Amino acid sequence: MESNYVFLDVDGTLVDYSNELPNSAVKAIKVAQANGHKVYPVTGRSKAEMYDELLEIGFDGYIGGNGNYVESDNEVILHQLITAEQEKMIVDWLNNRGLAFYLESNNGLFASEQFETRGEQTVKDYAAYKEKSGTETMTVRQAFPEMIFDGQLYRADVNKISFILEEYEDYLAAADFFSDFQVGTWGGIGEQALFGDIALANITKQTAIKKLLEHHGVDRKNTIAFGDAKVDIPMLEYCEIGVAMGNGGKEITAMADHITDSVDNDGLEKAFLHLGLIE
């Protein structure tokens, strides 16, 4: 069997919006690896947010920060950070606008002073996926179990910065002010804009995958990408086969080569079976 490189988005693909990891997905990944395939999470999460439950799966590497960090076989291939000067400018702008935010670093997630109280309703909205029980009691500390609430906010180790949108105008203002950066939005089911994020420009999941393949001398005809959101479209376009989750947004399901079931209905395992990664 020819070996494939399999790239998995995390939120909405590997885990659902309540951070629940299906046992079927873990089993499918391990069997695929035993069959000679390489499996990498490709996520907006920084490494500090790849909790033990995920790391214990035993991936072959990791792509984080939506592409600013690439690791394979315990070797760091790429890490592009926001500079300390840039980071201070962003933090000051968010504070002046009165927006709660958190800094995403491989060394931790660092919350602004108001993030825990202001973020309570936002994380409930983020987790409210198919009316699952328990989402109404979701807290920031449950959503981000290792978040640091009293850390230094002027830093030189930041991959990107996420902030709570009080209104959509906050995203538009950030996109205008930080025109030299990549400014986006993210959220829960249907890609509702709950958060904005600010990252370095010209970094995507696609550019990161390309860097990893070049490092290993792998042809992209041996690649498969899985995702559920617009941010995943570049990697699905780049890889030989692009798979959209059944819970994915309309843009990604429209362009995918294959649409599998939802993340919480064994969608990952079903797609692995369909593609012959496992039997």
UniProtKB/TrEMBL annotation:
<protein>
    <recommendedName>
        <fullName>Cof subfamily of IIB subfamily of haloacid dehalogenase superfamily/HAD-superfamily hydrolase, subfamily IIB</fullName>
    </recommendedName>
</protein>
<dbReference type="GO" id="GO:0005829">
    <property type="term" value="C:cytosol"/>
</dbReference>
<dbReference type="InterPro" id="IPR000150">
    <property type="entry name" value="Cof"/>
</dbReference>
<dbReference type="InterPro" id="IPR023214">
    <property type="entry name" value="HAD_sf"/>
</dbReference>
<dbReference type="GO" id="GO:0000287">
    <property type="term" value="F:magnesium ion binding"/>
</dbReference>
<dbReference type="Pfam" id="PF08282">
    <property type="entry name" value="Hydrolase_3"/>
</dbReference>
<dbReference type="InterPro" id="IPR036412">
    <property type="entry name" value="HAD-like_sf"/>
</dbReference>
<dbReference type="GO" id="GO:0016791">
    <property type="term" value="F:phosphatase activity"/>
</dbReference>
